Amino acid sequence: RTAAYSSSDPISSIEVNHSRIKVTKTIARNGSGHGITLNAATVDAFSGNTFTLNTLGAANVGANQVALLTGAGNTFANNTANFIVVRGETVSTPQTWPALDAPYQITADTTITTDLVIAAGANLVFKTTTRLLIESPGSLAAIGTAVAPIVFTCEKQIAGCWDGLTWYSTSNPSSQLDYVTVSYGGATSYSTSLETANIAVYNSKLSITHSTISYSSNYGIFWYGNTSTVVTQTGNTFVGNVTDTP
Q: Running DSSP on this structure, what letter comes out for residue 39?
């Protein structure tokens, strides 16, 4: 396909725009754009599909629709741009982002106002100066394992490449990072009361265990606020940060 339905849409072999669809046992390959784009879509079934050898990547989805890519037997590998492109927006529907055979590329600031779970083994690569913000009433539970950790990193392996993970005034107790790597953050702070950091927590609750916090341009973890700020962290490794914790 050489043109999108609208000039504001990405080029894709399959574009689902404000429509309902089932996608099963389908192959989208050798496209000049993405294999599939989902924009305000309803997907009733998604399994057994192959998206490969596409120039711009396997898929392009809004952050609030990433969970639609969940399904058995899907392949997203061996595209020219080897990413699942995720358009930055507010995640307002409770969901789990699956671990796929290509990394997620987060292209713009993304805000979580619901319960978001990241599956073990998922790999999230952020564009320069982007941020993942968790704010009331949202939570982020990224629970990996020793053999399938979760990675939050930047497109360039440079300290301060992206802003990092920020919790801001959310009392939701479900946020947890376990067997997670967070690296190359600390580009800018969310507010003047927060320092730059790979992980910044303001008036929020977060548990961090068995994780690696590395190569921040400032703090590895920074927390600030009143008694509603509760950060517990054990068994973590800090590497190459200017300052590890407050």
A: E
